[in-house]
Amino acid sequence: MSKSKDFTLGLISGALVGSAIALLYAPDKGSNTRDVISYRLSNYLDELTHLIDKLSDEKESISEAKRKGDLVVEDARDRAEDLIREAETLLDTIEDTKENEDNAAKEAE
């Protein structure tokens, strides 16, 4: 499991255990206890919603960074291929020039 899932699971289980303990040791009336539990659950849900939104934003940021990284790698690959083609063309030109010079030298003899 990822850390965010572990944290979310821990948050939810902690809220449930805390609610159960509060019910068992509540010195107050049932209606007041229910109000307190309702308030706490509402807060936990708000925190959980905030956490989910934050994780979603981070996931989008990671996806965007990965996309940009992939574009950089693709651009670098294209440039490297262009440089290799240019080098091969240059080598071919050098070989052709050398062959022409050798042929001209043989004809001059």
From TrEMBL:
It holds the Pfam family YtxH. Keywords: Coiled coil. It comes from the Bacteria. This is YtxH domain-containing protein. Residues 45-107 form a coiled coil. The lineage of its organism: Bacteria, Pseudomonadati, Balneolota, Balneolia, Balneolales.
